[in-house]
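REQUEST ID: PR-0412
SUBMITTED BY: lab tech R.K.
PRIORITY: routine
TASK: structure prediction, single protein chain
INPUT:
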Amino acid sequence: MTTAPAPASTPAPASTPAPAPESTSAPESTSTPASAVPDSAVVRDSAAGRVRRVLREPFTAAAWRRVAYAVLALPTGVLCVPFALVSRRAGRLQRGLLRRFLGVELPGNRRGLLHALLATPVNLLIAAVTLYGWSVVPMNLGWPLRVGSDYADSWGGPTFAGAWAFHAAVGGGGFALLMPWLGRAMAALQVRIARALLS
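STATUS: complete
OUTPUT:
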């Protein structure tokens, strides 16, 4: 008995992989990252901090130490001119003044004659600006006490209240806020001169 040959097995068609879906890349963001954008609250806090610092500066001990140095540097330098001719303590006296009032430590053992001579014109100008600028504050706050104050033709007039308010705000408060920062700049100049001539 003859068996019929088994039908040839036809190979299964190879499965073709399905095309991968096209990756839709997200459009590049043109917006600035959130970390680079300053938070408005932080900006407000930093601005408020700067305002507080400006308003607080006239009442700090450092501001008044700079005032003291501006006033004392001139007579100290004048006295040190003859003193430096006979002793090195004149230089130590000038360096001690810087350390005491400005917190600046200058090494060295110079006599201090050159510093006393060359810094005196600068110290004279700084002392005059400091004394005048700070004297303007009480003069304007106490404007009605000034002799011959005629509010009719004064700044802020013609009313008495307006003239007093103007003088107190601009002359009193304005100079009180300005002088500590001007004092910083003048003290920095004095320190630069001292570093060059004393250390």
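NOTES: Residues 6-14, 21-27 have pLDDT under 50 and may be disordered.
REVIEWED BY: pending
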